[in-house]
């Protein structure tokens, strides 16, 4: 789902410019430390997501906006996260990026390995991504034009402003 980390950084920068503290919990990074014991089997993905949500809650308690950039491909795991937070504190963002675009943004070459059958259970290739039925924000490509990470960040910041999340 290429673009999560890049857009998370752009959002974080935009929020810093508005005087807000943020912390990014990136699936790929957290899996090198806190979640290094977890695989990509469905139950381990659920545990990865659950732990990240619990850490996000700790940040939220400290008044820090936590940006969790992870695939979280299954609806039930995302719904379980939502249930951990008070109403309105969990904002689900769906990055609706076509698979062929993701495959063209493949700096680590993982899609290629998955297509060659060298990685099994790879999201989008031989493991499903379940798009949300209902979420707070959808980030989409506009027609054939690529939307920049900065534009995507602005969409999220506008949402937060409109809903009053950024009031002092
Ligand atoms: N089987 C499989 N499926 C999907 N992704 C895989 C897999 N194996 C390794 N990777 C790499 O792990 C990154 C995704 O980790 P996440 O913690 O975000 O995944 S999940 O939320 O637990 O599904 C993902 O990182 P991003 O490239 O940042 O998306 C991949 O680089
Ligand atoms: N909106 C965008 N337009 C063009 N390239 C992008 C965009 N978002 C991300 N990229 C590029 O795609 C690649 C993967 O992005 P990344 O943020 O690491 O994805 P993810 O965290 O989902 O794996 C990077 O090389 C990044 O520069």
State mean pLDDT (0 to 100 scale).
95
What low-confidence regions span 5 or more consecutive residues with pLDDT below 50? Answer: none
Helix content: 40-55%
Which class of secondary structure composition applies to the elements? mainly alpha
Please state the overall shape, judged from the principal axes of the Cα atoms.
Answer: globular
What is the alpha-carbon Rg in Å? 16 Å
Biggest β-sheet description: 2 strands, parallel
Assembly state: single chain
Task: Outline the structure in words.
By secondary structure, this protein is mainly alpha-helical. The protein has one domain: P-loop containing nucleotide triphosphate hydrolases (Rossmann fold, 3-Layer(aba) Sandwich), CATH 3.40.50.300. The protein has helices spanning 4-17, 27-30, 42-61, 75-84, 99-104, 110-115, 149-162, and strands at 22-26, 65-69, 93-96, 137-140. It is globular and about 50 Å long. The mean pLDDT is 95. Bound molecules: 3'-phosphate-adenosine-5'-phosphate sulfate (PPS) and adenosine-5'-diphosphate.
Question: Descriptors for this entry?
Answer:
binds adenosine-5'-diphosphate; APS; two-stranded parallel sheet; transferase; 44% helix; mainly alpha; 168 residues; EC 2.7.1.25; binds 3'-phosphate-adenosine-5'-phosphate sulfate
SSE map:
Layout: H1 4-17, E1 22-26, H2 27-30, H3 42-61, E2 65-69, H4 75-84, E3 93-96, H5 99-104, H6 110-115, E4 137-140, H7 149-162
Parallel strand pairs: 1-2, 3-4
Helix pairs in contact: 1-7, 3-4
Bound molecules: 3'-phosphate-adenosine-5'-phosphate sulfate and adenosine-5'-diphosphate.
């Amino acid at each position: 789902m290429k673009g999560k980390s890049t857009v998370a950084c752009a959002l974080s920068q935009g929020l810093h410019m508005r005087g807000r503290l943020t912390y990014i919990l990136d699936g790929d990074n957290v899996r090198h430390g806190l979640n290094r014991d977890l695989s990509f089997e469905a139950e381990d993905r659920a545990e990865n997501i659950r732990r990240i949500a619990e850490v996000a809650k700790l940040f939220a308690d400290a008044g820090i906006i936590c940006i969790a950039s992870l695939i979280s491909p299954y609806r039930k795991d995302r719904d379980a996260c939502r249930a951990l937070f008070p109403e309105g504190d969990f904002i689900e963002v769906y990055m609706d990026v076509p698979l062929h675009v993701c495959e063209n943004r493949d700096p680590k070459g993982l899609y290629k390995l998955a297509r060659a059958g060298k990685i099994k259970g790879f999201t989008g290739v031989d493991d499903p991504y379940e798009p949300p039925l209902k979420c707070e924000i959808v980030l989409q490509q506009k027609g054939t034009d690529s939307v920049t990470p900065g534009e995507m960040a602005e969409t999220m910041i506008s949402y937060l402003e409109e809903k009053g999340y950024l009031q002092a």
